[in-house]
Design brief:
about 0% strand, about 75% helix, MetI-like fold
Amino acid sequence: MAKNKKKLSKGNRVGYAFVLPALIFMLALVGFPIIYNFVLSFYNMDVMTMGQHTEKFIGFQNYTDLFQVPTTKTSIINTIVFTVGSIVFQFILGFLLAILFHQDFKLAKPLRGVLLISWMIPVTVTALLFKFMLSSSGGVINTILVYLHIIPKPLDFLVSSDLAMPSVIGINIWIGIPFNMVLLTTGLSNIPESYYEAAAIDGANAVQRFFKITLPLMKASMLSVIILGVIYTFKVFDLIWVGTGGGPVDATEVLSTYAYRLSFTQYSFSKGAATANILFVMLLVVGIIYIKLIGKDEVMN
């Protein structure tokens, strides 16, 4: 027994030795910036105070000031709208494609590979491509829509305050569909075919098999895909910044672009940090909800 304990403790020490470099890396490059960002948000640091080293502790004043500015509330609402709008359609279309490519037909793998291209292209490049494609002056999408008589004249997709948000949501959906498709296809592959064969023998039709077998067994995979999608979409920056710059008139301003604008355009570093912390807390709540849901699912199983 004593020998087993010695072996176990020795094994633990070896394991900790392997984990330690990653832990140090995370603390240095992730943990410290997060902590420093929280500390910074409680000071009045801007270009003047930073240059003269006269920044003072002001507590929650930055947060109070932020919520008195309409742009803060607009950016929070836009972040939620952008995330929900993107995730709903990404998930539905990704799930439908996952079901399609889970079928055994000749072109399933090649087509699935082609669809991954939109996810593999850097987001900045995608944003630039769509910026040109959606342009009202010679953009290919406007040209096609006018040619097909779907619209009477070219539309300012990324310049109109009414169309800018739906446009960037549409771009993000195009980017995110392959991500959802691949993860959900993996989840479908983990369901044993014997379950479907047994259900078919018992007389269950395709719809019944989908709702009684596929959906319940895909619950964990679907939850993971949705939560990962929410986290990835919630903190989007490059797509919005390159595509619209947060405009027009804050129509697509989200928390990440607003934090960047405060910090590196207006040089209100503490307010930018406070905005980033609001985003961090919202994502933390999403993560806690995910952990709770996963925990309940494991208890039920």
